[in-house]
């Protein structure tokens, strides 16, 4: 009996180590895909934003206002995000990863206008500050013992409300509303960062025993999108 308990304990410990090593590899894959996606986004945004010829396709060269294609480019990532969420379970991991990189390119197209408004230094400073904040919040979401699952629906409702407020402010151009959107947006995305990190971790642990690499690859891509 003692021998059985020893073997059982050893097997359980080995499985636990394997799962945690798999979790580490899974999270590294999520952040790896996310990093490549950010590079694609930055490359597209810089290429379009610093080219007068390409910018003129999406914005009026004189006023800088978006034309029809500009509006399409602005909201394209939002539509693709909802589409991706609905089709993730019906496509292969390879197709999902390809879709993600196309989404990253579309995101770069939608924010390319920032190069016409802000200096390269201010964009770089914002990127560094945002990256540091993301890293801290993601680390907290990964290590905290507090269950954040209850915040998911609340944060998504807040995100939808934020998008509606941003669209309204495109027409009313209220500085007070713009400030409120900025503050609330920071809080919502801070919460989503911690929530999504914990969700990615718990999803992996819930399915790790099956070791279905095809299934596990999809949450990694979806996590990078989040």
UniProtKB/TrEMBL annotation:
Q: What is this protein called?
A: Bax inhibitor-1/YccA family protein
The alphabetical list of record keywords is: Membrane, Transmembrane, Transmembrane helix
List membrane-spanning regions.
Answer: 30-48, 68-87, 99-118, 124-142, 154-171, 177-195
Highest taxon of source = Bacteria
Is Transmembrane helix one of the keywords UniProt gives this record? Answer: yes
- Cellular component, GO annotation: plasma membrane
| Recorded family membership | Belongs to the BI1 family.
**Could you tell me where this protein is found in the cell?**
Membrane
Principal subcellular localization: membrane
Native organism: Boseongicola sp. SB0664_bin_43
Bilayer topology term: Multi-pass membrane protein
Which Pfam families does the protein's record reference? Bax1-I
């Amino acid at each position: 009996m003692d021998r059985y308990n020893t073997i059982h304990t050893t097997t359980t410990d080995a499985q636990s180590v394997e799962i945690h090593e798999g979790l580490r590899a899974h999270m590294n894959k999520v952040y790896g895909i996310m990093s490549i996606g950010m590079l694609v986004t930055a490359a597209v945004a810089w290429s379009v934003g610093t080219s007068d010829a390409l910018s003129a396709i999406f914005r009026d060269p004189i006023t800088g206002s978006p034309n029809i294609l500009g509006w399409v480019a602005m909201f394209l990532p939002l539509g693709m995000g909802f589409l991706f969420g609905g089709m993730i379970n019906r496509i292969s991991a390879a197709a999902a990863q390809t879709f993600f990189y196309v989404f990253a390119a579309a995101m770069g197209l939608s924010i390319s206008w920032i190069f016409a408004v802000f200096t390269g230094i201010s964009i770089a400073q914002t990127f560094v500050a945002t990256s540091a904040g993301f890293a801290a919040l993601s680390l907290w979401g990964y290590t905290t013992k507090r269950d954040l699952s209850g915040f998911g629906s609340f944060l998504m409702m807040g995100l939808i409300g934020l998008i509606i407020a941003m669209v309204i402010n495109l027409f009313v151009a209220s500085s007070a509303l713009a400030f409120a959107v900025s503050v609330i947006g920071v809080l919502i995305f801070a919460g989503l960062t911690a929530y999504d990190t914990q969700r990615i971790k718990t999803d992996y642990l819930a399915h790790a025993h099956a070791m279905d690499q095809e299934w596990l690859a999809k949450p990694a891509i979806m996590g990078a999108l989040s």
